[in-house]
Design brief:
- By secondary structure, the chain is an alpha+beta fold.
- The chain folds into two domains: about 1-30; about 35-154, Glutaredoxin (3-Layer(aba) Sandwich).
- Helices cover about 50% and strands about 20% of the residues.
- A four-stranded mixed β-sheet has the order 2-1-3-4.
- It starts with a helix and ends with a helix.
- This is Nitrophenyl compound nitroreductase subunit ArsF family protein.
């Protein structure tokens, strides 16, 4: 009987610990990643590389974000440092960000390049092939960097 009580206690502690960890993760979400983007946060003249995600973030979605961010940082460090380019992570499912869904034809987590000139959107491109290429990191990186170079040259 002691073994049963001990096992039941251990299972209760495990479940309680799991709940505490999950709740803690919810409260530790980065306010930078989750903050709505107001007009004051938009650059006047720059290329903005957005990673749009929803509330649920699967491993593939996390890879797309990570691979995209690394592709941009490795090839465009000067542009990022000089504020000619910005990297932004946005939850498109938040009410304040829902306009992005129609603005950039978002149907799932994706990377979107937005060229802003004189404070207005001059051009944008939704990089929908990131889902197709996420299994081949080199092809993924080449795709993101090539599309980004193209938008910078426009």
């Amino acid at each position: 009987m002691n073994a049963k009580n001990w096992i039941a206690g251990a299972l209760l502690i495990f479940v309680a610990s799991s709940v505490v960890i999950l709740v803690g993760r919810e409260f530790r979400k980065s306010p930078v990643d989750e903050a709505p983007l107001g007009a004051e946060q938009q650059p006047d003249n720059a290329l903005v590389v957005y990673y749009f995600h929803g509330e649920t973030r699967c491993p593939t979605c996390m890879s797309i974000e990570s691979f995209s961010h690394e592709a941009v940082e490795s090839a465009f460090a000067d542009e990022l440092a000089e504020d000619r380019m910005q990297w932004k992570v946005v939850n498109y499912e938040q009410p304040a960000n829902s306009h992005f869904v129609t603005d950039y034809e978002i149907v799932s987590p994706t990377v979107v390049l937005v060229r802003r000139v004189d404070g207005k959107v001059a051009d944008w491109r939704n990089l929908v092939r990131v889902w197709e290429l996420v299994g081949d990191r080199d092809a993924f990186t080449e795709y993101v960097q090539s599309e980004t170079r193209s938008m910078l040259g426009s």
